[in-house]
């Protein structure tokens, strides 16, 4: 294509056309609806940061650098109070969110070249590297043992209190449900989409053990055994809590809103925050649903749980993916060397 053939379209016009193309791919099965909406959301954010009225072909690598850095500093409302807070609210975007945004923008510009919206792909001139953006990432995502125990204790406390809460209408009592949400996220580490898609029939008993059949990415399913404390809260919710919320609209859904609808992805963070408010301040730290997934992986691996077993619990196809879900814990190397598989228990370091 000759430069003169390039269409002088605004960023907003190109993003609108690209979004239509991406959504159309869902009808052919080339993209899942959720993946398509992530791409669309990212390019809409790109337009807002780059300037919707600017001509797309006028953007340079330097302009895209500014957009990438602007996104990195953009407050993430899902991570209120987490490390890396910025003035004016929320925490900055995580490293994973920054990498995803960059991939979305790159895919957009590759299409723009083919569509004749730009002469050259400005992504080839981008100079901001992930390491430069990485310093904006919160230092920790996984909760420490003390923080996780505080959150789980608060969740179990809600369940033990039962559905009878003074001052609330019976059909708006969500305490049992909230406790179950946090326990499932922290103990099993599902993706938030897997949690909200769960149905009552997905929980079954085999050989005296309660399992959750989780429908994950790529059409893969996995049967995960549930710890006893989680089973106790699940049974209490099914016996007492779910019926209070059921309006007959979602007969299969496990988790219901007080309006009787299937709990939405965006509601899960609010549930976590309500449970966190019951944790004593010294053990309280803000965390996202994905942060609880990191917490599950981190502590299972730190406890020397078989890596392949952890992979299957989390629903990953490849062991190498676990590296992204593993955060370093204070003192874990020292603890590992004190109980060495070849030397037995070692009380402390030998001093020379």
UniProtKB/TrEMBL annotation:
<dbReference type="InterPro" id="IPR044068">
    <property type="entry name" value="CB"/>
</dbReference>
<dbReference type="GO" id="GO:0015074">
    <property type="term" value="P:DNA integration"/>
</dbReference>
<keyword id="KW-0233">DNA recombination</keyword>
<dbReference type="GO" id="GO:0003677">
    <property type="term" value="F:DNA binding"/>
</dbReference>
<dbReference type="GO" id="GO:0006310">
    <property type="term" value="P:DNA recombination"/>
</dbReference>
<dbReference type="InterPro" id="IPR011010">
    <property type="entry name" value="DNA_brk_join_enz"/>
</dbReference>
<dbReference type="InterPro" id="IPR010998">
    <property type="entry name" value="Integrase_recombinase_N"/>
</dbReference>
<dbReference type="InterPro" id="IPR050090">
    <property type="entry name" value="Tyrosine_recombinase_XerCD"/>
</dbReference>
<dbReference type="InterPro" id="IPR002104">
    <property type="entry name" value="Integrase_catalytic"/>
</dbReference>
<keyword id="KW-0238">DNA-binding</keyword>
<feature type="domain" description="Core-binding (CB)">
    <location>
        <begin position="9"/>
        <end position="113"/>
    </location>
</feature>
<protein>
    <submittedName>
        <fullName>Site-specific recombinase XerD</fullName>
    </submittedName>
</protein>
<dbReference type="InterPro" id="IPR013762">
    <property type="entry name" value="Integrase-like_cat_sf"/>
</dbReference>
<feature type="domain" description="Tyr recombinase">
    <location>
        <begin position="138"/>
        <end position="338"/>
    </location>
</feature>
<dbReference type="Pfam" id="PF00589">
    <property type="entry name" value="Phage_integrase"/>
</dbReference>
């Amino acid at each position: 294509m000759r430069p003169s053939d390039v269409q002088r379209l605004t960023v907003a016009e190109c993003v609108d056309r690209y979004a239509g193309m991406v959504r159309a791919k869902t009808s052919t099965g080339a993209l899942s609806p959720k993946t398509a909406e992530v791409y669309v959301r990212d390019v809409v954010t790109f337009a807002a940061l780059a300037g919707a009225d600017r001509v797309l072909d006028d953007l340079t690598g330097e302009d895209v650098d500014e957009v990438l850095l602007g996104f990195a500093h953009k407050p993430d409302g899902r991570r209120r109070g987490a490390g890396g807070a910025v003035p004016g609210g929320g925490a900055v975007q995580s490293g994973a969110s920054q990498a995803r945004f960059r991939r979305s923008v790159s895919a957009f510009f590759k299409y723009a070249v083919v569509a004749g919206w730009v002469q050259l792909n400005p992504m080839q001139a981008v100079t901001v590297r992930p390491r430069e953006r990485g310093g904006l990432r919160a230092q920790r995502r996984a909760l420490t043992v003390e923080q996780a125990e505080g959150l789980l204790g608060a969740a179990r406390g809600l369940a033990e209190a039962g559905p009878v809460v003074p001052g609330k209408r019976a059909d708006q009592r969500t305490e049992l449900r909230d406790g179950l949400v946090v326990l499932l996220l922290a103990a099993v580490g599902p993706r938030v989409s897997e949690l909200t898609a769960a149905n009552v029939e997905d929980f079954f008993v085999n050989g005296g053990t309660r399992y959750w059949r989780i429908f994950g990415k790529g059409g893969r399913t996995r049967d995960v055994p549930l710890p006893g404390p989680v089973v106790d809260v699940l049974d209490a919710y099914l016996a007492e809590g779910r019926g209070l919320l059921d309006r007959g609209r979602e007969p299969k859904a496990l988790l219901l809103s007080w309006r009787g609808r299937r709990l939405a992805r965006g509601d899960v963070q609010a549930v976590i925050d309500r449970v966190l408010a019951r944790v004593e301040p010294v053990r309280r730290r803000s965390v996202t649903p994905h942060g609880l997934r990191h917490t599950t992986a981190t502590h299972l691996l730190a406890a020397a749980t078989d890596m392949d077993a952890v992979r299957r619990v989390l629903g990953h196809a490849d062991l190498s993916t676990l590296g992204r879900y593993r955060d370093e814990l204070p003192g874990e190397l020292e603890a590992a060397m004190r109980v060495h598989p070849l030397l037995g228990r070692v009380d402390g370091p030998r001093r020379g």
